[in-house]
Amino acid sequence: MPGKTTKAARGGRATIDVYLVDGTYELFRHFFAVPSSCDAGGQEIGAVRGVVASVLSMLESGVRYIGVATDHVIESFRNDLYLGYKTGEGVDPELMSQFPILEAALGALGTLVWPMVEVEADDALAAAAVKAATDERVARVLICTPDKDLGQTVSGTRIVQLDRRRDVVRDEQGVVEKFGVKPESIPDYLAVVGDSADGFPGVAGWGAKAAAAALSRYIHLEAIPKDWRQWDPSIARARALSESLTKSWDDALLFRELLPEMRDLLWLEHSDHYFRTR
After folding, report:
1. Based on the domain organization, do 168 and 241 belong to the same domain?
2. Given CB 3.0 to 4.6 Å as the disulfide criterion, which of 67, 139, 159, 166 pairs with 155?
3. Is the same domain home to 60 and 157?
């Protein structure tokens, strides 16, 4: 397991790796990956057992600072912004019923848990990552999720994404290699490409290659010239892309607004709120 509490090479000062775990992703993943298991009352707990075992393995490997964010309810303020945004409809009730059990079980382990209601687990992870990175005690922040939404939070080698299932760490250069754009452009990239997991379609005609070509040059949607004839000549199909973007401009800005927000949330006002020593 990469990243535990270590000693700095100079001065003997402790340097801390903070692990921020996407509890929703972990619960969904284990629900479909592990055998069913019920408690004495008949409550399904198989996924909870899988996630708890996974977090225990982190603690046993030497990880000392962990925060876990969950979507206590699937719906959020984004459902008011866009009717097509993801909901809890169609989610197996046996899966949904395990969220409060997981939150209680992780809390019993001494792990800090953020059960999100009005905002989402992704918002908590993004805000906590940015907050933790401002603390001089922190050497590295590892956001434990493969979710591409959180790519925007990656910064150099200080804030990285860790796909624990594949044991892959993605730093800022890794984001560029995967998406063709820097982390700051990920919200714009997903706004035009779309994200089926979150329920928004993107902009017609804008695939991954087109988005990478345009946003690697212009960074944000607002910086793309309104006149396609002013686009960088290396961008193919400039006229068609420009016309499609212009037609769907309001939608593109709305889709970008649906992405996680790297804002300070009230419960992250003090850094010690996300530190938990084992």
Report:
1. no
2. 159
3. yes
Same domain for 130 and 141, yes or no, is yes
Counting the structural domains of the chain, the total is: 2
Q: Which of the 8 DSSP states describes residue 7?
A: E
Cβ atoms within 10 Å, residue 17:
20
Q: Which of 19, 63, 6 is nearest to 162 (CA)?
A: 19
AA letter at 12: G
Please indicate, yes or no, whether residues 94 and 199 belong to a single structural domain of this protein.
no
- Give residue 118's pLDDT band: very low, low, confident or very high (50, 70, 90): confident
d(CA 129, CA 267): 13
Confidence of residue 9 (pLDDT cuts 50, 70, 90): very low
Does 160 lie in the same domain as 198?
Answer: no
Closest C-alpha among 216, 209, 218 to residue 236: 209
> Which residues, 6 or more positions from 40, have their beta carbon under 8 angstroms from its beta carbon?
none
Output the pLDDT for position 129. Answer: 94
Find residue 68's DSSP bridge partners: 21, 113
